[in-house]
Design a protein that fits this description.
Strand content: 25-35%
Helix content: 10-25%
CATH superfamily: Glutaredoxin
Strand order of the largest sheet: 4-3-7-6-5-9-10
Order of helices and strands: EEEEEHHEHEHEEEEEHE
Number of domains: 1
Number of helices: 5
Largest sheet: 7 strands, mixed
CATH topology: Glutaredoxin
Shape: globular
Distance between the termini: 20 Å
Structural class: alpha+beta
Low-confidence stretches: 1-7
CATH class: Alpha Beta
Mean pLDDT: 92
Number of strands: 13
Radius of gyration: 15 Å
Length: about 180
Amino acid sequence: MVIVAGCTSNPSVNEIALKNLQGQASRIDPSKNPLTVIYFLSPECPLCINYTLAIKQLSEKFAMDSIAFYGVHSGKWFSASEVEEYKLKYGLEINMLLDPTNQLAQTLGATVTPEVFVLNSKSEPLYFGKIDNWINDLGKKKLEVSERYLEDALAAYLKGAEINPEETKAVGCLIE
């Protein structure tokens, strides 16, 4: 959690009002699941488009493990219909939410898309950063993924093992 001058702190994840794609108020409540995965996405970001298959595969692989998956679109740049089109076009079956004031992004410290956060039921981050090592710098893609940070973090948690690494530096389109 980041402390702001004047001893004010950011709200906890479950206190932040988001909107679902029908325009209704919605919240992410990590206390309802052992793990919550929050992807910060943008329907216009080429990396977010390229990562849709990985996002889909991970949500399917861990579907039976009581892990909640969310795609959060921060900022006022994207309409619900654009996000819905992105979701449908790429067959993403995860909950998509809008964060028009960037409050969730600021609370978690998300700066780019795609960037992922894995939270335990107490809203504590267990892993955050890149999905994998396919992209290490903008414009530089590997031919093959050799490190699956998010998948490994989820698997380690489910086995009761240590998550390592706990943090990587995400690369992508800036959240504005």
